Amino acid sequence: MGNFLRVEYIIIFLVCLVVTIAIVRSKKKDFKLEANKLIMLLGGKDNVIDYEFNKSRFIVNLKDVSKASKEGIQKMGAQGIVEIDNQLKIILGPSAKQIKKYINELK
Q1: Strand arrangement, sheet containing 87-91
Q2: Which residues does the chain have with pLDDT short of 50?
Q3: Is residue 8 in a domain?
Q4: CA distances (Å), 97 to each of 31, 72, 74, 102, in order?
Q5: CATH code of the domain in which 78 resides
Protein backbone atom coordinates (compact mmCIF):
# COMPACT_ATOMS: atom_id res chain seq x y z
CA MET A 1 0.00 0.00 0.00
CA GLY A 2 2.88 2.39 0.88
CA ASN A 3 4.59 1.90 -2.51
CA PHE A 4 1.30 2.49 -4.35
CA LEU A 5 0.86 5.90 -2.63
CA ARG A 6 4.44 6.80 -3.42
CA VAL A 7 3.86 6.05 -7.13
CA GLU A 8 0.68 8.16 -7.12
CA TYR A 9 2.57 11.13 -5.65
CA ILE A 10 5.35 10.76 -8.22
CA ILE A 11 2.78 10.70 -11.05
CA ILE A 12 0.99 13.77 -9.65
CA PHE A 13 4.32 15.59 -9.32
CA LEU A 14 5.32 14.76 -12.91
CA VAL A 15 1.95 15.92 -14.29
CA CYS A 16 2.27 19.21 -12.37
CA LEU A 17 5.83 19.65 -13.68
CA VAL A 18 4.75 19.11 -17.30
CA VAL A 19 1.84 21.55 -16.92
CA THR A 20 4.14 24.18 -15.36
CA ILE A 21 6.69 23.85 -18.17
CA ALA A 22 3.92 24.15 -20.78
CA ILE A 23 2.59 27.34 -19.16
CA VAL A 24 6.04 28.94 -18.95
CA ARG A 25 6.83 28.13 -22.59
CA SER A 26 3.50 29.49 -23.80
CA LYS A 27 4.15 32.83 -22.10
CA LYS A 28 7.62 33.28 -23.62
CA LYS A 29 7.68 35.71 -26.50
CA ASP A 30 8.78 34.46 -29.87
CA PHE A 31 11.20 37.27 -30.71
CA LYS A 32 11.74 36.04 -34.27
CA LEU A 33 8.01 36.41 -34.89
CA GLU A 34 8.04 39.82 -33.15
CA ALA A 35 10.92 41.02 -35.37
CA ASN A 36 9.10 39.91 -38.54
CA LYS A 37 5.92 41.61 -37.39
CA LEU A 38 7.81 44.82 -36.58
CA ILE A 39 9.41 44.90 -40.05
CA MET A 40 5.98 44.45 -41.65
CA LEU A 41 4.55 47.26 -39.49
CA LEU A 42 7.39 49.49 -40.68
CA GLY A 43 6.18 49.08 -44.25
CA GLY A 44 8.20 46.00 -45.14
CA LYS A 45 11.87 45.20 -45.57
CA ASP A 46 12.18 47.42 -48.68
CA ASN A 47 10.91 50.47 -46.78
CA VAL A 48 13.72 50.29 -44.21
CA ILE A 49 16.80 52.31 -45.26
CA ASP A 50 18.85 51.68 -42.14
CA TYR A 51 18.44 51.18 -38.42
CA GLU A 52 20.29 51.13 -35.14
CA PHE A 53 19.65 50.02 -31.63
CA ASN A 54 20.53 52.15 -28.64
CA LYS A 55 19.78 50.27 -25.41
CA SER A 56 15.99 50.02 -25.33
CA ARG A 57 15.41 52.21 -28.42
CA PHE A 58 15.13 51.13 -32.03
CA ILE A 59 15.91 53.99 -34.41
CA VAL A 60 14.91 53.36 -38.01
CA ASN A 61 15.14 55.50 -41.15
CA LEU A 62 12.37 54.78 -43.66
CA LYS A 63 11.89 55.58 -47.33
CA ASP A 64 8.23 56.41 -46.71
CA VAL A 65 7.20 56.93 -43.08
CA SER A 66 3.51 56.94 -44.08
CA LYS A 67 3.76 53.19 -44.78
CA ALA A 68 4.58 52.52 -41.13
CA SER A 69 1.75 51.62 -38.78
CA LYS A 70 2.58 53.49 -35.58
CA GLU A 71 -0.67 52.27 -34.04
CA GLY A 72 0.26 48.65 -34.82
CA ILE A 73 3.75 49.11 -33.37
CA GLN A 74 2.18 50.62 -30.24
CA LYS A 75 -0.19 47.63 -29.94
CA MET A 76 2.82 45.33 -30.27
CA GLY A 77 4.09 46.71 -26.98
CA ALA A 78 6.22 49.71 -27.87
CA GLN A 79 6.43 52.07 -24.92
CA GLY A 80 6.69 55.12 -27.15
CA ILE A 81 7.27 56.30 -30.72
CA VAL A 82 8.78 59.60 -31.87
CA GLU A 83 8.65 60.58 -35.55
CA ILE A 84 11.19 63.03 -36.95
CA ASP A 85 11.11 63.45 -40.75
CA ASN A 86 11.59 59.90 -42.14
CA GLN A 87 12.92 58.52 -38.88
CA LEU A 88 11.08 56.66 -36.14
CA LYS A 89 12.50 56.27 -32.65
CA ILE A 90 10.71 53.34 -31.05
CA ILE A 91 11.12 52.58 -27.36
CA LEU A 92 10.92 48.78 -27.13
CA GLY A 93 12.04 48.31 -23.55
CA PRO A 94 13.84 45.21 -22.33
CA SER A 95 12.90 43.13 -25.40
CA ALA A 96 15.00 45.34 -27.70
CA LYS A 97 18.12 43.21 -27.35
CA GLN A 98 16.39 40.01 -28.46
CA ILE A 99 14.51 41.72 -31.31
CA LYS A 100 17.79 43.30 -32.50
CA LYS A 101 19.30 39.85 -32.98
CA TYR A 102 16.48 38.71 -35.26
CA ILE A 103 16.23 41.96 -37.21
CA ASN A 104 19.96 41.74 -37.96
CA GLU A 105 19.35 38.23 -39.36
CA LEU A 106 16.55 39.54 -41.62
CA LYS A 107 18.66 42.19 -43.36
Answers
A1: 48-54, 57-62, 87-91, 80-84
A2: none
A3: no
A4: 10, 20, 18, 9
A5: 3.30.1360.60
